[in-house]
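Annotated sample (chain length 107).
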Amino acid sequence: VTISLNNGYPKLPPRAVMVTPIFHPNIDGNGAICIACLRTSWNQTVTIRQMIEEIIDALRHPNPEDELSVEAANMMKNDPKKFEETAKLLVIFWDACSLEYFQHVNT
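Output written by the structure step:
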């Protein structure tokens, strides 16, 4: 996850992006993260720590009713077992791609 503080911070929320690809209903293909503190409930008292805790909570407890990835949300709602299998397979795939990339870069 990268967190960028913009010129309007703390009046405006920071931007949080998931750098590692993930199949998740609350994270889109560009890595944008859908959590309440970044969208609807942001205020100047929200800390970066609270934001990170909310991201961790979203990763642990995906919410298909507040989706950024329609495909992942629909699969989670209609076929939870397939969603879990797909998410696991894609983690393995992206991990292998990352390992191959770093091995290539470091040779």
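Annotation: The helical segments are 36-39, 48-60, 70-78, 80-105.
Annotation: The radius of gyration is 16 Å.
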